[in-house]
Amino acid sequence: MTVPAVDDAILTLLNVESAYGPIKAIRGVSLNVRRGQIATVLGSNGAGKTTILKTISGIIDPRKGSVEFKGENITAKDPVHIVHRGLVHVPEGREVFPLLSVRDNLLMGAYARADRDAIARDMEAVYGYFPILAERSHQDAGLLSGGQQQMLAISRALMAKPELILLDEPSLGLSPKLTKEIFEIVVRINRERGTTILLVEQNANMALNASDYGYVLENGRIVMEDTCARLREKEDIKEFYLGMKEEGVRAERRWKKKKTWR
Ligand SMILES: Nc1ncnc2c1ncn2[C@@H]1O[C@H](COP(=O)(O)OP(=O)(O)O)[C@@H](O)[C@H]1O
Ligand SMILES: [Mg+2]
Question: Whole-prediction pTM value?
Answer without folding.
Answer: 0.90
